[in-house]
Amino acid sequence: MPDRLMPDRLMQDRRLFLQGAGAGLLSSVMGGKIAFAQAPTEKRLVVLFLRGGMDGLHAVVPYADKNYHNLRGTIAVKDSLNINGYFGMHQSLRGLHGLYRQGELAIVPAAATQYRLRSHFDAQNMLENGSGTPFGASDGWLNRAIVGLNGGDRRMGLALGKQVPLILQGASGIQTWSQSGLDPVSDDFLSRLSLVYAGDETFAKALADARETAGASDMMGKSMSVNTRRKDDLIELAEAAGMLMSQPGGPRIAVMESVGWDTHYDQERRIKPKFQEVSDAVLALKKSLGAHWNQTAVLIVSEFGRTAAENGNRGTDHGTGGVAMIAGGAVKGGQILGKWPGLSRYSLFQKRDVRAENDYEGIFKSVLISHLGLTDSFVADTVLPGNKSKPMEGLIG
Amino acid sequence: MKNIETFIALNRFGLGPAPREARKVEDDPKAWIKAQITPRATIPRSLIGFRNSDDIIRDIHKARKRGAIKSPDEKQDLRAAFAKELLARSKNMIVTSTPFTERMVMFWSNHFTVSTTKKLIGPVLPAFEREAIRPHIFGKFSNMLEDSTRHPAMLAYLDNHKSAGPRTPVGIEQIIRSGVRTTLNENLAREILELHTLGVNGGYDQDDVIELAKAISGWSHGSVRLPHDDRPIHGRFEFKKHMHEPGSKFVMGKRYKDKGAQTGLNILDDLAQHPSTARHIATKLVRHFVSDDPPEHLIEKIANVFMDTDGDLAKVSEAIVDLDEVWMNPLPKVKSHYELVISAYRVSGKSDVGVMNLVEPLREFGQLPFSANSPAGWPDKASHWVSPEGLMRRIEWLDKFAKKLPATLNPAYVQEELMGPVVSDDTRLWVSRAPSVSSGLSLVFASPEFQRR
Fold this sequence. Notes:
The complex is a heterodimer of chains A (397) and B (453).
Chain A: H1 8-12, H2 23-30, E1 44-50, H3 56-59, E2 60-61, H4 68-72, E3 81-82, E4 88-89, H5 94-101, E5 105-112, H6 120-129, H7 141-150, E6 157-160, E7 175-177, H8 187-196, H9 201-218, H10 234-246, E8 253-258, H11 267-289, E9 296-302, E10 322-327, E11 335-336, E12 358-359, H12 360-371, H13 376-383
Parallel strand pairs in A: 1-8, 1-9, 5-11, 5-12, 6-7, 6-8
Antiparallel strand pairs in A: 2-4, 3-4, 5-10, 9-10
Chain B: H1 4-13, H2 21-25, H3 29-34, H4 53-66, H5 72-95, H6 99-111, H7 125-133, H8 141-150, H9 152-157, H10 169-178, H11 187-196, H12 206-215, E1 219-221, E2 237-239, E3 249-251, E4 254-256, H13 261-272, H14 275-289, H15 296-308, H16 313-321, H17 337-348, H18 355-365, H19 382-385, H20 388-403, H21 411-419, H22 425-432, H23 437-446, H24 448-451
Antiparallel strand pairs in B: 1-2, 3-4
Helix pairs in contact in B: 5-17, 8-13, 11-12, 14-15, 15-16, 20-23, 21-23, 22-23
C-alpha cells in the first residue's frame, strides 16, 4: 500500500546516484583525493541472501522422489526443468538452470547452517555472524574475512541497498550503494559536517564510509542516470554491483538481499516472481561483470528451508534443510554436491523437514579458502569459529 | 533549554521539542512524563472518525469477491483512506502535547508488528493500531496481547485466519482432497511465543508452537468463508468451530482442556504473565529508553515490576522513568528515521505538513509506517539507522528541511533552544563558523545531537 503513495511526478526525476553525490558532482567531490589501493585479490564474491526461509524443495525439485508428490500435494512443482533425472529446477529459475547446464552453477541440496530451530531472526543472525550461535558475535563473518584479506580496507566490501547487513558489519568499513531521489548536498557542507561529527564515532565512521563510496563510484566512469523505479530493485542492484566490482580498485566482496521468501500461504503464486527476479539478477550480474565473471563466485543462500509437507494454506512453514546455489565462472558448476537424504518419513528431520546433511559453513569455508585464498587457520579461528565443518570439496576449481 | 533532564524528557521520552515545550518541562521533567501516563488512553481527536477495521475488511473482501479489487477506483479509495489516516497519525505526533504517549504507541505497535508487506491487509493497519494497541499502552499487557492477537489484521498478517486443525471437519476434508499432511499454519503461534511474549530464548520448543497453533486454530474473521457458506461477511473476529482442533493442548508444560475459543485466551493469559515474557518486554523497554545494549540489572528491575503488577504497563512505564540510569547519559540512542522526521517537523511547530513532505523522506529512508519487512518490526539499534547510506539520506533530507526554514533564524539560538545543554564543543564551534545562516541551520539539524535522543 504505502509504496503507491508517491505520485508519478516525483518518480520522473528519480535517478541513481551514489552515496549522496550525483554523477556530475562526483569528480569535483572526490577528484584526485582517493588513490585506490591495489586490491589484494582479483577474486570476487557476491552473497545473495534470500531472507525469510526460501523453500529449497520448490527451487530444486526432487520430482522423482517417491514421497515428493505425496508431501507436496497441491504445491508440487509441475514441469520442472530437468537436471539429472531426479532433481529439476523450477521453471522461473530458467536462467540459473542455463548456468547449470553451462557448468557455471553448482547446487547443494539439503543445506543449512548448523542452526536447528526455526526462528527467522536467530537463523539469519547465526548465518550472518558466523560464530556458530545466534547473537554469538556482534560482527559479520564476511567483514572478518575482509580484515583477513586486506587489513580492513573499506574499499573491499560493498553492501547493495540502504543498510549494511550484519554479515558485512564489523571492524572493516563497508561501502554502501543504493538509489535515492533526494538531492545531494555539497561537498563543502559534508566537510563541515565531518568536523561536527568528529566526537561521535558512530556518525563519523558512517559519514566517512559514505563519502568514500561516492568517490569509488566515480571510477565507474559512467553516468547511472535515468531510473524510474521506486525501490531498490534486485536486478538494478546486481547491475550496479557488477559495474563497481569490475573496477580495478573496486570492491571485491558484495552482499545483496532479497526479502519475501516466507511463503506460509499461496507459495507458488508468490514465489514465482521471486525466482524470476533472482534468476534475472544473477544473469544481470554476470553480464555487468563481463570477463570478471570468471573470477567470481556467487553464493545464493537463505536462513533455512521449509517444511517438507505442504501446510493448510498452499504454503509451507519454517523448516531446516534448504538449498544453496553457487554460481560463477570460478565455480565448478554443472554438478550437485553433498549428500541427499531423500524425503522418506525416516529421513526427515523431526519427521517434518529435509534433513540438513550439508553445512553452509562448509560451503563458506570452501569459498573463503579455495576461492579468496584465506588460510585454513584464519578461517577456522577467526572467520567461522565454533564450527567444525570441513570445507566442501570439489566446489571451486 | 535549561538542563540536560529537560533534553532527555523531551527527546528520549517525547518526540523532540515543540516550540515553547521546554518551558513546560524544565521545572519537573519526570512529572511531565508521568502526567501522560493515564490508564485509559484516549484517542486523539484527529484520529476520531476514521473507519473501524470491521468495515474496512468487509469492504476489501466484498470488492475482492466482485473481482473489483482489481479496479483502479476501488483500490484508489482504499489507498487514499490509508494515506489519510497515516497522515493524521503523523500530524498528531507532530503537534501533540503528550508525545510520550505517542512514543509508547509506536513502541507497542512495533512490538506487535503488522505490515503492508501483506498487501491485502494494508488498508486496515492504522485501524489495528487504533483499536488493538492504543487503548492498552498504559493498561494491562495481557489485554493488548489478546486484542492484537485476535485482531483480524494480525490473524491475516500471520496466516492464522485460514489455519484449520487437522482433526476438524475442514482439516480432514482438506487432507483427503489434497493430500496435505497438516492443515495447521504455525506462523502466528510461533511469533506469539518468539516475538510477542516469551522471546526466542524463553523456553518454548517446536511442540509448544504446534500446540499453541492448535489452540488458536479457528481464530479467524468474518470475511473468510467456505464456498457453501452464504452468511453475510464482516470484518470482526470470528471463531470457526469447524476449524478448531479439538482436545486438550499442552503449552509450556501445562495442560489446557479444550474450551473452544477460550482455550487460546487462557494460554495467552498465562503467557502474558510468564517470567520469560516479563524479561523479554523489559529487555526491549530498557533498550528503547536506556541503551542499545540493555544492562542486565535494569532488565531485572523492570521485569520484576512487570511480574509484581501482572503486566500493568502504567506501572512499568513509571518504573522506566524512575530508573536513575535513564537520566545519566543524554545521547545514548539514535532516532529512527520516522522519529527524526517527526522531531524535525515538531521544531517548526506547524501542523500543515503536506502528505508528500512526510511520505517522501520516509520512503527514501525506507521507513514508511506499517511497512516493516518482518514481524520482528523495526530494529531498535543505532547500527540500523546510521549506515553510511542511511546517514547520507538523513543528511540530505535534514539539509533540505533546514534550507526551508526562515533565513531570519539565528542558528546559534536554534541550537541552544533545541539542545543547548548537550551540544558538543565541536558542534558549537562549527555552527558558529558556518559561512551562512542556511549552512549553520543545516549543521544544527544534521548534528549528532539532533539525530540522537
